Amino acid sequence: MNRPYAYNRDKGKCRLCNGYVEPYESYFHHIDPKLPIERVNKVKNLITTHDYCHKLIHSEDLPEDLSEETLKRLAKYRKKLTFNC
Question: How far apart are alpha carbons 78 and 53 in whole angstroms?
Fold first, then answer.
């Protein structure tokens, strides 16, 4: 239920690359996956992403062709992750 609200809040754009995401192609990243279960799926903890961008957040490897702005956003979302996923 909260994912459509997050999608609308993000105006249908990926919060990582800023590109448009079709509703049926959207993925939702938990900003802080370590929150208690009653808070982890709240709208303020979800961001809309493309599948590729979501995989970038969880990957240890970075492509060389990312813009500086995208790298900054990526660092922000990766900061709360541990790479044991």
Answer: 12
The owner of tokens 């370590």 is 34
> For residue 83, with 0-12 CB atoms within 10 Å meaning exposed, 13-18 middle and 19 or more buried, which class applies?
exposed
Tokens of 1: 């239920």
- pTM across the whole model: 0.85
Residue 66 makes CB contacts below 8 A (sequence gap 6+) with 74
Cα 39-22-31 angle, rounded to 5 deg = 25
Distance, first Cα to last Cα, the chain: 25
59 backbone dihedrals φ, ψ, rounded to 5°:
-95, 150
Give the pLDDT confidence of 32-70 residue by residue, as tens digits.
988 999 999 999 999 999 999 999 999 888 888 899 999
If you search the block for the tokens 């813009």, which residue do you land on? Answer: 67
